[in-house]
């Protein structure tokens, strides 16, 4: 297999690729020559220019048994900062980090009646920028349909957006830096993928149960699938069957579950799925019916996903993490014998910072893609 080379790249791309390699791990000039398969003179020129610009710095030598010890290089921590925002129906979180990932500043804001306006996202970013030196890029995660090419959000019902919002253009115009906009479930999938074995990481689906919506992050053949309009994975909009045109999320979102429990005379003062399972365990007739309907809906969704994508694993995230082994088994049992292969069904790992971390990583990659 041929090694990656810098030889044919333009100068800005060469510099960015060197910085990207050093962002992952401290290395010497010799390590970079080996990694990229280019001359030591090219690496020396690139490193010198990056040191002169304050992007890289030299560390102490690395001890070795024979020969001259190499000088290690690292990205300068305070050369700049990255900023990420994660939006949910409850509110938004924003965080600034230095180029070593250390947290500089954070902020939170509650949603107003379940709505986060585009303007409030901008205001939260502005407040952090006032406390942060030299922000280089901004990454925003939203629970909606995001066009990867334009950064437009065509729908985000979980935060009250029913019309298209040109979010990336708005933020670029206001702050003048690199901006990435991503679907939050895709970012959850990106985070979870790093914990999977090689086979599972090539074909996996993250099925997320949210407050109002249900979405899926899809890795197929080792690639994230976004679709023509960024709407791949919007499985919550699919009908429950050929005869029942009701959307999956209309009956199975946590709001829908809570509404059905309340209609049956129950208070819902805990997460709706947890409350449903507790009542069903106690033998409540209404809860047992609702649980059966919810599991049937998930079983149908798993069948659709499996017949189209044949994933190795489907990870249940969001409120669906509350489903236990018995519920996950019931989802698959209805499909046994109906499909040629059944996926592994697991709960996603609880990672409160997964979306922010993935948004920061996407922002960094986009910044490097533009060259330095």
How would you describe the overall organization of this protein?
It is a single chain. This protein has 372 residues and is an alpha/beta fold. The chain folds into 3 domains: 11-75, Orthogonal Bundle (Arc Repressor Mutant, subunit A), CATH 1.10.10.10; 79-188 and 353-369, ATPase, nucleotide binding domain (Nucleotidyltransferase, domain 5); 196-347, 2-Layer Sandwich (Nucleotidyltransferase, domain 5), CATH 3.30.420.40. The chain has helices at residues 11-24, 29-36, 40-52, 118-129, 167-175, 184-193, 198-202, 248-252, 254-263, 272-281, 285-309, 325-333, 354-369, and strands at 27-28, 56-61, 71-75, 81-87, 91-98, 103-110, 135-142, 145-146, 153-155, 178-183, 204-209, 214-220, 223-224, 313-318, 344-347. The strands form 4 sheets. The protein has a 5-stranded mixed β-sheet with strand order 6-5-4-7-10, sandwiched between helices. A 5-stranded mixed β-sheet has the order 13-12-11-14-15, with helices on both faces. Strands 1-3-2 form a 3-stranded antiparallel β-sheet. Strand 5 (91-98) and strand 6 (103-110) form a beta hairpin. The protein is globular and about 75 Å long. The two termini are 28 Å apart. The model has no long low-confidence stretch (mean pLDDT 91).
């Amino acid at each position: 297999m041929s090694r990656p080379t810098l030889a044919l790249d333009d100068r800005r791309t060469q510099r960015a690729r060197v910085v990207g390699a050093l962002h992952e791990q401290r290395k010497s000039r010799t390590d970079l020559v080996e990694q990229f398969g280019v001359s030591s003179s090219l690496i020396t020129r690139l490193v010198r220019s990056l040191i002169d610009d304050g992007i890289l710095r030299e560390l102490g030598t690395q001890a070795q048994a024979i020969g001259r010890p190499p000088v290690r290089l690292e990205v300068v921590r305070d050369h700049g900062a990255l900023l990420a925002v994660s939006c949910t129906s409850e509110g938004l979180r924003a965080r600034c980090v230095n180029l070593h990932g250390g947290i500089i500043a954070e902020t939170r804001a509650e949603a107003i009646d379940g709505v986060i306006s585009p303007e409030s996202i901008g205001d939260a970013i502005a407040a952090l920028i006032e406390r942060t030196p030299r922000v280089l890029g901004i990454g925003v995660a939203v629970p909606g349909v995001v066009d990867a090419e334009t950064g437009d959000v065509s729908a985000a019902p979980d935060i009250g957006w029913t019309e298209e919002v040109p979010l990336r253009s708005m933020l670029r115009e206001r702050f003048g830096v690199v901006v990435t906009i991503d679907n939050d479930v895709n970012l959850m999938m990106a985070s979870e993928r790093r914990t999977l074995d090689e086979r599972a990481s090539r074909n996996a689906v993250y099925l997320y149960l949210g407050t109002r919506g249900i979405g899926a992050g899809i890795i197929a053949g080792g690639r994230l699938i976004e679709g023509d309009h960024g709407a791949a994975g919007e499985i919550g909009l699919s009908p429950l069957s050929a005869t029942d045109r009701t959307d999956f999320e209309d009956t199975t979102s946590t709001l829908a579950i809570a509404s059905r429990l309340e209609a049956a005379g129950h208070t819902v003062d805990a997460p709706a799925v947890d409350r449903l399972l507790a009542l069903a365990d106690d033998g409540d007739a209404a809860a047992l019916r609702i649980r059966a309907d919810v599991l049937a809906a998930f079983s149908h969704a798993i069948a659709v996903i499996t017949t189209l994508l044949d994933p190795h694993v489907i990870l249940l995230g969001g409120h669906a993490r509350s489903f236990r082994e018995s519920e996950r088994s019931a989802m698959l049992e209805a499909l046994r014998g109906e499909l040629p292969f059944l996926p592994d069904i697991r709960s996603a790992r609880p990672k409160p910072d997964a979306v922010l971390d993935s948004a920061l990583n996407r922002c960094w990659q986009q910044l490097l893609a533009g060259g330095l």
